[in-house]
From TrEMBL:
It holds the Pfam family NAD_binding_2. This is NADP-dependent phosphogluconate dehydrogenase. It comes from the Bacteria. Residues 178-335 form the 6-phosphogluconate dehydrogenase C-terminal domain. InterPro entries: 6-PGluconate_DH-like_C_sf, 6PGD_dom2, 6PGDH_C, 6PGDH_NADP-bd, NAD(P)-bd_dom_sf, Pgluconate_DH. Keywords: Gluconate utilization, Oxidoreductase. Residues 317-336 are annotated as: Disordered. One of its GO terms (biological process) is D-gluconate metabolic process. Pathway: Carbohydrate degradation; pentose phosphate pathway. One of its GO terms (molecular function) is phosphogluconate dehydrogenase (decarboxylating) activity. It comes from Roseicella aerolata. Its EC number is 1.1.1.44.
């Protein structure tokens, strides 16, 4: 392929992805269907359907240098933690000054500030890109929250806007702020999940005859609490009354909202609903008491993110290892 840079001002129509799992893989599927040229590398090899759809499958991150025209853009959708640093080191050794790397995973924002500084020293742009919308969003239109310097964000903004729902992109601030606002978003999500789940548990515990499914269907249409989460709970309950598929009531999660609670304590911002939501998830892993609320949380989380119906070691490991560095306050000069 020619190494000629793209025409000045032209919106980029190609990019790379490291990590073709549930989110990265669906982002790639959406992009390929929209006519983008996508190169991808993932542990275990690219899914066959992506290769059939036109993905240029690479064996290692070093392959992006030859596969993409400069200035290159490579997204990461890999689990938070040490693996992000490993991939960044491999990419930094292969890419050239002026190229941009975007971390679309749930990395801790303090880690993203540190990574930005390290890559900037090597002439590489870095964007921390909070990604929301779950599996359907990745496939049909996501929500992106970017943090980083203006030039690096401008490089990826056209692609993100093309892969987002209308209005679903924001340059939230300087380095680390994309992942910070995504972290706050996840804390809000936890509080909403618990409120809906506790309400569901009350419906289930009522001794008098009560049509739970019809009630959920009614709430979906015009009520103040109508939302995608209520939709997901209603759909899950319709297909599995009582939500028995989540029999254990063990709610697995990657632990990033734990970081937000620690940030809130340091910032002296009271977040009792979010903090209690974290405690409730932890409580789900102990005594198997009344599980209706836990099964409801599991059903909704599975609906939007494909999260498991019980314990899963790889996720528990990410919860333990996801934040690499200490809580980090951004320096005053690290703005847009």
């Amino acid at each position: 392929m020619s190494s000629t840079p793209e025409r000045a001002g032209a919106a980029p129509r190609e990019f790379g992805i490291v990590g073709l799992g549930q989110i990265g893989g669906n982002i790639a599927r959406q992009a390929l269907a929209a006519g983008f040229r996508v190169a991808g590398q993932t542990k275990g090899g690219a899914p066959p359907d992506l290769i059939e759809a036109g993905l240029l499958a690479l064996q290692e991150p070093a392959g992006f240098r030859a596969a993409l025209r400069p200035p290159r853009l490579v997204f990461l959708w890999v689990p938070a933690g040490p693996v992000v640093d490993t991939v960044l080191e491999e990419l930094a050794a292969a890419l050239e000054p002026g190229d941009v790397i975007a971390d679309g995973g749930n990395s801790y924002w303090g880690d993203s500030i540190r990574r930005h500084g390290r890559l900037r020293e090597q002439g590489l742009g870095f964007v921390d890109l909070g990604t929301s919308g779950g599996l359907p969003g990745a496939r049909q239109g996501a929500c992106f929250m970017a943090g980083g310097e203006a030039g690096a964000v401008a490089r990826l903004e056209p692609i993100c806007r093309a892969l987002a729902v209308e209005g679903g992109f924001v340059h939230a601030g300087g380095p680390g702020m994309g992942h910070f606002v995504k972290l706050v978003h996840n804390g809000i999500e936890f509080g909403m999940l618990q409120a809906i789940a506790k309400g569901y548990a009350l419906l289930r515990r009522q001794d008098a005859p009560l049509d739970v499914q019809a009630t959920l269907e009614c709430w979906r249409r015009g009520s103040v609490i109508r939302s995608w989460l209520v939709d997901l709970l209603a759909e899950a309950h319709h297909g599995d009354p009582g939500l028995g598929r989540a029999e254990s009531g063990y709610v697995e999660d990657t632990g990033e909202v734990n970081w937000l609670v620690m940030d809130a304590i340091r910032m002296e911002v009271p977040v009792p609903v979010i903090a209690q939501s974290v405690m409730q998830l932890i409580a789900s892993r102990e005594a198997p008491a009344e599980r209706d609320w836990a099964r409801a949380v599991i059903a909704m989380r599975h609906g939007f993110g494909g999260h498991p119906f019980g314990p899963e070691e790889s996720i528990a490991r990410e919860r333990r290892e996801g934040r690499v560095g200490p809580i980090h306050r951004p320096a005053p000069d690290q703005g847009n």
